[in-house]
């Protein structure tokens, strides 16, 4: 009997060879003037094309969306041309790749915006750190978005989705997770608006559904995924309250109205057992609620990945760090080989080291 992780799966009209998903990971290699995907990135993604699906690193939907150094964008024609090389290389190796669409909101810094303040639902400082061209700096109090600006951001997601399809991606993932802009809208501790985008659960969730509706005007909804992190607490300035989990219950229930490619959920990133409002078992809670294909993520091993699929709590498992040091991760799982360790010092450094120089199993054995 094959391992559950290695069984094929169909996401609507898209067939995946296995259920080992490469999680989106910021690697900061687009170290050039226009944040354009480069040849290093072409090699990196092609090396990992045996994943059932690659979800690209976060790609900013506009200049306003930038919040980390050397991260690639999806808003200029130069970026689209760079991504075309990436998707062509992945497809040549038989792989599938989605682009993750990203706006960091208040996690950005004036250094990225000619001294202008980052934007957010409300003017609340996350009291965290932003990774700027000059290194880590303390975040600032962002500027609250106006309603016309929110409508423009929705259009920026739509334009980025169209660019991603023009660049040859198989689909897109809406990054509404990990304390970034869309997530900042959902949470009552980061969104204290009193207009149509604040107050009630429905209002705080509104922007996500506007983004989905806009994106489906330019591409098939069957090729759109959504990423959520319901129990994020104490990271990126996010704190939970009694409405946090009910908000995600509402969002995930409503996502059943769309024939999405998948829902991508994260288990808690840290120990939330002492947080009265937190849900400790995300897959267990949301598998009965969400009717479509479910990816689960956060610190999974091969053994736990197989177990969560076998238990019927998820359909696929996304692996992050293991894919950094093990470009052929599904093959290593197939042969039950020991995994190579990733070098944390090169996660975000420019250049080939710690990026495209990890050997495949065949190379390592040779």
Automatic annotation (TrEMBL):
Organism: Pontibacter aquaedesilientis
Entry protein name: Alkene reductase
Pfam families: Oxidored_FMN
Domain NADH:flavin oxidoreductase/NADH oxidase N-terminal: 5-339
Entry-linked InterPro entries: Aldolase_TIM (IPR013785), OxRdtase_FMN_N (IPR001155), Oye-like (IPR045247)
């Amino acid at each position: 009997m094959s391992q559950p992780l290695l069984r094929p799966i169909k996401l609507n009209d898209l067939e995946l060879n296995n259920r080992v998903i490469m999680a989106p990971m910021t690697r900061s290699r687009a170290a050039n003037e226009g944040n354009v995907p480069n040849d290093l990135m072409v090699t990196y993604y092609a090396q990992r094309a045996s994943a059932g699906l690659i979800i690209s690193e976060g790609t900013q939907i506009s200049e306003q969306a930038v919040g980390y150094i050397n991260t690639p964008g999806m808003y200029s024609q130069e970026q689209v041309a760079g991504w075309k090389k990436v998707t062509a290389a992945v497809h040549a190796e038989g792989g599938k790749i989605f682009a993750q669409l990203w706006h960091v909101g208040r996690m950005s810094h004036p250094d990225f915006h000619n001294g202008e303040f980052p934007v957010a639902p409300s003017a609340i400082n996350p009291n965290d750190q932003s990774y700027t061209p000059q290194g880590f700096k303390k975040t600032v109090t962002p500027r609250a978005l106006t309603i016309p600006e929110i409508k423009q951001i929705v259009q920026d997601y739509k334009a980025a989705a169209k660019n991603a399809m023009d660049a040859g991606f198989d689909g897109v993932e809406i990054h509404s997770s990990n304390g970034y802009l869309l997530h900042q809208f959902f949470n009552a501790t980061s969104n204290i608006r009193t207009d149509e985008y604040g107050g009630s659960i429905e209002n705080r969730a509104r922007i996500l559904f506007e983004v989905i509706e806009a994106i489906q005007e330019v591409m098939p909804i069957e090729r759109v995924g959504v990423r959520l992190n319901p129990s994020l607490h104490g990271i990126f300035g996010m704190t939970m309250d009694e409405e946090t989990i009910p908000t995600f219950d509402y969002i995930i229930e409503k996502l059943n109205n769309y024939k999405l490619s998948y829902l991508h959920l994260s288990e808690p990133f840290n120990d939330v057992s002492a947080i009265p409002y937190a849900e400790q078992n995300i897959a267990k809670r949301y598998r009965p609620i969400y009717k479509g294909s479910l990816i689960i993520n956060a610190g999974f091993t091969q053994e736990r990945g197989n177990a969560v699929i076998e238990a019927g709590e998820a359909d696929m498992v996304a692996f992050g760090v293991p894919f950094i040091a093990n470009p052929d991760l599904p093959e290593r799982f197939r042969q039950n080989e020991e995994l190579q360790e990733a070098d944390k010092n090169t996660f975000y450094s420019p250049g080939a080291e710690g990026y495209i120089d990890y050997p495949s199993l065949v190379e390592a054995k040779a």
